[in-house]
Amino acid sequence: MNLKEKIQIRLDKIEMLMNEDFHLKNPDEVYDQTLDVSKFWSILSEEDRDFIQGVQSSIEEGWSWKDK
Question: How far is CA 11 from the centre of its chain?
Fold first, then answer.
């Protein structure tokens, strides 16, 4: 498995957690997962960067992801 595949698996997991609004119950856990992906910022696509930033904003502001 190459690095991009590993990153995609992590992104998919974050997306699944966000779709379940898991970040409203366990914000630190989801935020830590975004940091785990952010260390690869230079190779993330613009779409993936926007997603990570949106997730972090949602965690910080306490927004439901389901309302997006």
Answer: 6
Domain count, the chain: 1
Query: Is 68 within a domain?
Result: no
Q: Is residue 55 part of a domain?
A: yes
Q: For the CA atoms of the chain, what is the radius of gyration?
A: 11
Closest CA to 64 of 27, 4, 21: 21
pLDDT tens digits along 44-56: 999 999 999 999 9
- Listed in sequence order, the DSSP H helices in 1-68 are 3-19, 22-25, 27-38, 46-61
Tally of CA atoms within 13 A in the half-sphere of 49 that contains its CB: 8
pLDDT digits (tens, 9 = 90+) for 3-20: 999 999 999 999 999 999
